[in-house]
């Protein structure tokens, strides 16, 4: 798996089972918009939902994914940095922060973010795969 493909994973959505059915519908609607390439609409819906519930970790994560897909790396970086600060126990925000860093050719920062992901969850395979990709990119420089 390449580092970029890892960002498209919505695995964090399975981590949070405490949301209600209406929220799940909203997440599904946003995911459908993303899959259809309607990124502006997905971002608008995500931000609309976040205005109602600023603490929703899933929506924040999805917002970071959408911003990354839109190549708005600085905005996505801020989202994932905030998620790692607020939820240091979750490996996914670190992994996706690494993807954003890698897209900006900040390989050393990507490496550190992936190490943090692995430290929070040693068996997180995606972070291990992405770390291998980062090492390969660093070696080729």
If you had to describe this structure to a student in words, what would you say it looks like?
The chain has 141 residues and is mostly helical. It has 8 helices and no strands. It has helices at residues 3-7, 21-35, 39-52, 57-69, 73-86, 91-103, 107-120, 125-140. The longest helix has 16 residues, at 125-140. The model is unreliable at 1-21 (pLDDT under 50).
Number of distinct beta strands: 0
Please identify the structural class as seen in this structure.
mainly alpha
Average pLDDT works out at 87
Oligomeric category: single chain
Strand content: under 5%
**Which spans have pLDDT < 50 for at least 5 consecutive residues?**
1-21
Secondary-structure element order, N to C: HHHHHHHH
User: What's the tally of helices?
Assistant: 8
Helix content: over 70%
Shape by Cα distribution: globular
Largest sheet entry: none
C-alpha Rg (nearest Å): 15 Å
What is the terminal-to-terminal distance? Answer: 20 Å
Summary?
The protein is mainly α and 141 residues long. The protein contains eight helices and no strands. Helix 6 runs parallel beside helix 8.
List keywords for this structure.
141 residues; mainly alpha; 8 helices; 74% helix; globular; disordered N terminus
Topology:
Elements: H1 3-7, H2 21-35, H3 39-52, H4 57-69, H5 73-86, H6 91-103, H7 107-120, H8 125-140
């Amino acid at each position: 798996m390449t580092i970029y493909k890892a960002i498209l994973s919505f695995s964090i959505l399975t981590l949070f089972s405490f949301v209600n059915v209406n929220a799940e519908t909203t997440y599904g609607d946003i995911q459908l918009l993303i899959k259809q390439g309607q990124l502006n609409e997905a971002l608008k819906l995500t931000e609309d939902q976040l205005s109602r519930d600023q603490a929703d970790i899933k929506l924040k994560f999805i917002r970071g994914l959408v911003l990354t897909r839109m190549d708005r790396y600085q905005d996505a970086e801020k989202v994932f940095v905030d998620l790692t600060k607020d939820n240091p126990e979750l490996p996914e925000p670190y992994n996706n922060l690494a993807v954003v860093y890698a897209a900006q050719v900040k390989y050393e920062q990507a490496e550190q973010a992936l190490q943090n992901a692995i430290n929070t969850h040693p068996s997180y395979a995606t972070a291990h795969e992405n770390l291998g990709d980062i090492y390969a990119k660093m070696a080729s420089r």
